Amino acid sequence: LFVLVEKAFAEKDYAGAEKSLVFLAAEAEAHGAASYWRGRIAEATRRDAVKAYREALGAQPPFIGAAFELERIYVSRRQFREAIDVLESVSLVDTSPAGRVNLHVRLAAVWEESGDLVLARRELERARRLDAGRADVAGALVRVRERGRDLEGAIEICAELVEMAGQRANAENKMRELEAMRVRSMEGRQDGAAEERDGGVGLFRRK
User: Which of the four pLDDT bands, split at 50, 70 and 90, describes residue 190?
Assistant: First the structure.
């Protein structure tokens, strides 16, 4: 029956998909999946899907995919605390190594979107400790460190990315960009120090 739901949904036959869900909802073990698809249909027809996704996540067994849909909705509404809470609830269900890494990556993305680069960096570093070979995690950490003006740290990770399969060209280009930023930053600090020694500039020149 889920095949029928997916087919109807793909064809934008939302009424037909909902009819198929009536049969699925009667089976206890399919309740989570049925609620998840109700949420998908609700979104497709411009209705609020949060209730359906929450029912899917609270079902036994929980339908994990609903958590990621809720995360997306909450982030779009800038309800970051709610998005974090939903993701953290997943850690109680998916305890696999890959699941834990992906959870840290998703948490980092939410924190970064919220503007908290410190917590975003913390989650990415946790992900790296679990799987140091994930190039996407290293790349995200380069971005977060750069945004936080930790250019030295970003360059160090780029150096590690150079050694990863298929990452050399992009990592080397990024390293050159970061090196140039670091030089400009150092020059700016030197110019500022020189201006301070000379008595300042403009409105703030010392009398």
Answer: low
pTM: 0.80
Any idea what the Cα angle at residue 74 is, between residues 71 and 80, rounded to 5°? 90
Q: Is the pLDDT of residue 195 over 80?
A: no
Which sign, positive or negative, has the C-alpha torsion 125, 127, 128, 130? positive
Identify the DSSP state of 200: -
> 112 is written with which tokens?
């970064």
Nearest Cα residue to 152 out of 130, 122, 183 = 183
Distant-in-sequence, close-in-space partners of 93: CB < 8 Å, separation ≥ 6 = 61, 62, 64
CA 181, CA 149: separation in Å to the nearest integer?
Answer: 10
Amino acid occupying residue 63: F
Look at residue 191 in the predicted model and tell me its pLDDT: 55
Separation of alpha carbons 66 and 40, rounded Å: 9
Q: Which of 159, 154, 156, 163 is nearest to 181 (CA)?
A: 154
Distance CA 189, CA 161 (A): 29
Which positions ≥6 away from 74 have C-beta within 8 Å?
80, 82, 83, 86
